[in-house]
Q: What sequence folds into this?
């Protein structure tokens, strides 16, 4: 692999991919604990990386935010066996997210940014593609429950998948705003009455 | 009522409350059709109100956004008879919102802004208070369904209320991002199997 070298403000950045990965790691840590910075400069200060270095690796705040979330998801063990029900999958995710509210905030920021008329294409494409992938995965799990006979056969798997993804997102948002007023897992358990796991547990 | 007068940039603003209401009306119209502007100045340009006038009536973009949404909700007929089920209430709201995607975007912006570490207190308080009010209303409707015998007695009304509010918010967000991929009302109808209306229809 050819080394990338750039001269930005008098410093040269060698071993680009490795340094880029280090920056993403640091950003994931800081975002998880303290939330998302308002500008690329503020993020650089928070994660202890010069603004010049950050700009070398990421063209914009939008691109950095997408890459941080993408990297976080690829590291988190988001894959689960096909036997795990749609609701249980969201429940596991909610459990993991309790420890990293700043990354839930980052996710909410990305989805809201994607809605704006002037949204960066990288944000909009990432969020749209992610929702399609999540819904397809959840719909497959609903179909598995229908095959196993635990979920009513006349529920449309795609409608149910969008519902489960929405419930999970919306509940985590309410929980962030009012941790004592909302219990994500208990509310998801209500939904599990309609879309129960295939195996007990 | 005493008239407020201010001299900003050589123009005086009389009849403050009336002019303020006109500005909110115009902002609701423009936001509904075109979404939320990125800055107070951009919003002023979009709604055809000078930046100085906007700043006279609203201390910040945050305050304007909250007031626009508050005013929109007070004008929309959001009150419904107690017989309307929790899910049907969200369904009515989703139906209304189809025509005003920019105000759904404004709502998503307010909730995401409220999460940020540096959130304006006016935004955070508005969003938190609104969620509490919406959940309390929905929980009351779930209790009514339980009294009428249509909803299982062992479902916690508060857990169900948070679930219904979350599903509604999350589905509308997915619909904005992918209008052909998500049908809010069909997904809400899946949830209505668990939390059906008291009266048929």
A:
């Amino acid at each position: 692999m050819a080394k990338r070298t750039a001269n930005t403000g008098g410093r040269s950045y060698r071993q680009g991919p490795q340094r880029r990965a280090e920056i993403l790691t640091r950003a994931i840590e800081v975002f998880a604990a303290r939330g998302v910075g308002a500008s690329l400069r503020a993020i650089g200060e928070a994660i202890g990386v010069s603004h010049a270095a950050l700009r070398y690796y990421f063209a914009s705040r939008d691109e950095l935010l997408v890459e941080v979330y993408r990297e976080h998801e690829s590291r988190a063990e988001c894959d689960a066996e096909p036997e795990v029900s749609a609701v249980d999958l969201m429940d596991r995710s909610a459990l993991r997210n309790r420890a990293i509210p700043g990354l839930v905030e980052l996710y909410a920021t990305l989805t809201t940014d994607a809605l704006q008329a002037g949204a960066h294409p990288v944000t909009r494409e990432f969020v749209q593609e992610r929702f399609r992938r999540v819904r397809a995965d959840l719909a497959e799990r609903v179909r598995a429950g229908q095959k196993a006979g635990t979920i009513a056969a006349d529920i449309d798997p795609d409608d149910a998948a969008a519902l489960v993804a929405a419930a999970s997102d919306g509940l985590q948002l309410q929980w962030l705003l009012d941790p004592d007023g909302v219990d994500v897992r208990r509310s998801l358990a209500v939904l599990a009455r309609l879309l129960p796991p295939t195996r007990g547990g």
Chain A touches chain B through 50 residues (CB under 8 Å). Residues 114 and 125 of chain A are 8 Å apart (CA to CA). Residues 14-69 of chain A form a domain with the Arc Repressor Mutant, subunit A fold (CATH 1.10.10.60). The two ends of chain A are 47 Å apart (CA to CA).
